[in-house]
Known about the structure:
Blueprint: E1 3-10, E2 17-21, E3 56-61, E4 64-74, E5 95-107, E6 112-118, E7 128-129, E8 131-136, E9 140-147, E10 152-160, E11 181-184, E12 190-195, E13 199-205, H1 217-220, E14 225-226, E15 229-236, E16 244-251, E17 258-264, E18 280-286, E19 296-303, E20 307-312, E21 320-324, E22 327-331, E23 336-340, E24 367-372, E25 375-379, E26 384-393, E27 396-407, E28 413-417, E29 421-425, E30 431-440, H2 444-455, H3 463-469, H4 472-479, E31 486-487, E32 499-509, E33 517-522, H5 532-536, E34 539-545, E35 552-556, E36 563-569, E37 573-579, H6 592-598, E38 603-608, E39 612-617, E40 621-623, E41 636-642, E42 647-652, E43 655-660, E44 663-669, H7 678-681, E45 686-692, E46 695-700, E47 705-711, E48 716-720, H8 723-726, E49 732-740, H9 754-757, H10 760-767, E50 775-782, E51 787-792, E52 797-801, E53 810-812, H11 828-833, H12 836-843, E54 847-853, E55 863-868, E56 873-880, H13 886-895, H14 902-908, E57 913-917, E58 937-943, E59 946-951, E60 957-962, E61 965-970, E62 977-983, E63 991-996, E64 1000-1005, E65 1018-1022, E66 1026-1030, ...
Amino acid sequence: MSYAAFKMMHWPTGIENCASGFITHRADVVPEIPPIQADDMESEWPARKGVGPVPNLVVTAGNVLEVYVVRVQEEDNRASRPPSEANRGGVMAGISGVSLELVCNYKLHGNVETMAVLSMGGGDGSRRRDSIILAFQDAKISVLEFDDSMHGLRTSSMHCFEGSEWNYLKRGRESFARGPLVKVDPLGRCGGVLVYGLQMIILKAAQAGYGLVGDDEASGSGGTISARIESSYVISLRDLDMKHVKDFTFVHGYIEPVMVILHERELTWAGRVSWKHHTCMISALSISTTLKQHPLIWSAVNLPHDAYKLLAVPSPIGGVLVISANSIHYHSQSASCTLALNPFALPVDSSQEMPRSSFNVELDASHATWLLHDVAMLSTKLGELLLLTLVYDGRVVQRLELSKSRASVLTSGIATLGNSFFFLASRLGDSMLVQYTCGMGTSMSTSAHVKEEGGDIEADTPSAKRLRRSSSDALQDIVSGEELSLYGSTPNNSESAQKVFSFAVRDSLINIGPLKDFSYGLRINADPNATGIAKQSNYELVCCSGHGKNGALCVLQQSIRPELITEVELPGCKGIWTVYHKSARGLNTDSKVGSEDDEYHAYLVISLESRTMVLETADLLGEVTESVDYYVQGSTVAAGNLFGRRRVIQVFARGARILDGSYMTQDLSLGVPNSESSSSAESSAVSSVSIADPYVLLRMSDGSIRLLVGDPSTCTVSITVPPIFESLKESISACTLYHDKEPEPWLRKASTDAWLSTGVGEAIDGADGAHDQGDIYCVVCYESGTLEIFDVPSFKCVFSVDKFVSGKSLLVDTFVREASQDPHSGNKSSEEVAGQIKKETVQNMKVVELAMQRWSGQHTRPFLFGILTDGTMLCYHAYLYEGQENITKIEEAVSGDNAVDLSSMSSSRFRNLRFVRVPLETFTREEASAVSPCQRITIFKNVGGYQGLFLCGARPAWFMVCRERLRVHPQLCDGSIVAFTVLHNVNCNHGLIYVTSQGFLKICQLPSVSSYDNYWPVQKIPLKGTPHQVTYFAEKNLYPLIVSVPAVKPLNQVLSSLVDQEVGNQVEHDGLNSDDLHRTYTVDEFEIRILEPEKSGGPWQTKATIPMQSSENALTVRMVTLFNTTTKENETLLAVGTAYVQGEDVAARGRVLLYSIGRNTDNPQNLVSEVYAKELKGAISALASLQGHLLIASGPKIILHKWTGTELNGVAFYDAPPLYVVSLNIVKNFILLGDIHKSIYFLSWKEQGAQLSLLAKDFGNLDCFTTEFLIDGTTLSLVVADEQKNVQIFYYAPKMSESWKGQKLLSRAEFHVGAHVTKFLRLQMLPISSDRNAAPGSEKTNRFALLFGTLDGSLGCVAPLEELTFRRLQTLQRKLVDAVPHVAGLNPRAFRQFRSNGKAHKPGPDNIVDCELLCHYEMLPLEEQLDIANQVGTTRAQILSNLNDLSLGMNFL
Length: 1453
């Protein structure tokens, strides 16, 4: 394997930074939320009128940036909620539901270190929006703003302070403890970025009304302009005599921006703390950006050495809070006060007494935000929320009061969103959006009322639904009822009124990180007979994720495997449909909304090759083909409901029938319009159908169109040919109807004079009491690739786009786009030169299927899907953009073509409608097939509580719409699927039916335990402890794993366990008085749990628990196969390696334990029995079985043992100088060993001489995290991931001269992953299409890829490539670096460069291609794809097939 590909398969989910700001809308324009009248509160407390404007939430996870908008829902309009949005948290402050909705998300070529929002400042009604400032490793800063015209972020400025001309900023240092830190002035006048430890970059913000040169946006887009950065300069903090800067912030209430810096004057260390403990100070600098001066205006000294964070106190109080591990200090120019949090807090001199908080807490690693101007919320390292109240008089803070709130998730950041919400970001658990209200509780009665409200969290959703919707762990904590009444301060003095906070969790974002270890096991419903790609979906990944109380097992599956209810063999099926039947006897007297979703289906129509079957879908599926009036003599093209489900329409090749239940009420034959000769009628049959009540659109096989128009009063249908299509030269390649309804038609907003364009008549009809039925549009795509949208039934063209086929990133109405705006108009000549080849490929590319749908929900926008002839799926999301320059453009465009009636043209066009292309990350497109084009897209409104569409074909996939974001999940378990429909009846609740190409009809349900709002379907099993390592026992389908649970113990008990048993000396309690001994101390207690997956998919069962001894840590658990030398048989045992952690005075020891699982079947109680235990010197950090022997890494030795059935006897050892072995891998008799500091060793074991010998090693100092072998045919390579987030591939080549006669491993490739890889798993790759005919066991089939998990919660793959493919993709990759506009201006080549962090490193070859960059190729417009392929010297089809083969070969789950 000289070449490899790197591909992410699941992007990071652990959120590191969060911030709030008005990114997509202005603070003064918030159309979404009408104000809600608050209850009458205390008179001095300002009554809150509603939730006010809610800013956007911006989060980053690894290299992923996401912008969300918070959707608030008032109590009354429950009707319009989609079925999936379970109402979380009850009703609070008049709000019944809040959800996060995705606006845009990006994968950046770099990890975001810190983030800040540059606000518009002042709140003086300035018409500016906020911008996002991102800082990247070393010293790169990008400022992004939201651009309405493209509905996404664009870079407004970039500031780079690295490279040769800025090297002097580093002052000779190579590595720095942390990346750049960004903070901004609260009024948005400037920002500061701390880089290289002591260099402060000041970013000066542009004044209001100042745009970039030639930027006419202020006039163009309704006057909205975002905050921008004008210039930047550097202040060296060394010159201000600062040695070690810990944090800085900008404070409120000064005329100029004032920056307060927390720094250490003279450093101290643990051994000196008792003498030198108040070493920190703060300095306030007034920043004058115009003069570039920064005078010191005040400072405060003698802050504790462990102070680490500054928190600016909002106006009107001002000043700054300094947070240290054991105390909190408030300082302003005029006043200061402190609060000690625990007995470790020391006053500066012993004479003073510090005010102490009522309970003990440690605040290191805390995060904080302001809920009110005088109440801050802090989250501790144990996941508790604390409320800190500043008691003040005027502007003087008199004292600080701290009170406990309730437990929550372990946070990595908190952001307050508006005045009613805050977001808890977490890297270790699920992140949560919480609503809070604050009341004043002077009398007990009001607080009791709030108490009930607080206790009502999650009460109204049934528990099963709650388990599925919510992230199990995070909520259980909040729900468990601890401290439900939240007092902001204790009422110890009469004048401070009491603030009572109540919280409700409203939404959560799933996180599967940090993945510490995972194992690959069979799913419960695995199919033993599956082969090929279907076999892959038999497996799932069981991952150790989270930490402490957020610890969980995550069960990940790349593909969906529905739960089978029944299956029948049904060969030759072409399509299936389920239809409703509402009898007219007034069954629908109950409220329309309630019944609509829960109504059962009445009939199932199955179309076979030459006939149609009809089944009743009551309790049992019984065939009623003979007794109904359906057309059953031939196959059906489509079936559906009309007239509010009172009638069924069935369309077949030559006609259609309308049925009422089982009786036919009308029979239509699709004859020939007079204009055509009768001969052509023979050829023309119905090829595709789209139904939108009361219209049915038919596309005939000759490319013409028929529209069936229904009359609701008589329930009859008439056939028409829209006049605009009668004289059409060009045939239509695909068309669909789009019904724009609930809760209010969305497209009406897209026309400039919205209330006129839809016609006043309709509006009046709607007011008659029948509610608005919405509008219907017809979307048509011609053979030439033009897409048009027509209003039905008037067939006025409201929107058209040229070259829809090419897949441009934005679709804009042709009449709006002006010449200069078109990026492709300039290079016409070059296109002509490229020759005929290109034209041909574009010409025979056409759209074969279209769908447009807007799923239910308050703020949803329509999606538009198109499938091209080569299997490419185009997906667009609609949005509105009101540009003022549109009107003139239309008139100019029209005047050239005087045939068009100008007034009708401009009045009804959707000038403000645009579509933005959505990337489909995990979707593997299907190669073009010559099969007759059947309809592949089926839209579903509710399958197991989710909505979206299902794509049939050779690679079926689910497209689920969650938070206005498409989640694509493949379904591989049945191979190709020819037809799909939903089924809702007594026995199958919101389920589905599909027919496989092998001719099986399966009735299924979606597994309800998994959550699908994630890159992969995931099920979280909370453990209430930290999982460390997991392994899989295939025979019994069990998962043994190491879990540690924190336990609180008295100090003397902990001390006595630190005694060295061999020496037996007693611990002297000299430094401890008696009450110190009664203090408690938290230690981790380890155990091995053996879990079994639940058959029904419920919570997993703990089958057995093996506790470890006190102060013994289990380090590794593995299933090993040992050869028993007495019985001459192989035994599979569970092996555990442990270490005693007893402090630095005791020599390290460890135990190796062997257990047999499920041997004695007579007694199921003792599933696990210990067969062997032995104590060894040194920690046992890794175990593996090698050809029937057990290989143990114990401290500095590696020892190979043989197993006699009763004991382990050493047969060979190797004294490598490893300090601590992190991983052992074995292939045949080769051993790969990774050490925490000494890189990797490659050993071999020879049976005859019984010796372990070193073949080669890497001479570099690499801090290994994990290792594995990579196998490509007959080539063996060694892969290692390190602490600098790199992956390196080594090989052993004793014949090469540079390998020093084979002593040294040579580098084959190196790559920067950008996340800490913690585990590699070697999995066999599927042989891909081109190699199917290769002989079994040949090079091509014996290929293994490495699946890896990271601490960010991402999963990816490193896979071998053959040279030809590699060269092609590498050349393409180099082209794409320039061809693709990269978000935030980051360079992918720089990101993927090996990072050595200042250590000497000889650069290795660049033999890994980056699929993260290559996936942008499919998102380019078709013309550019062909152009780039041409420059690379290959074809588009070849490139796409290579990329496709790669992603197919990696479908492991």
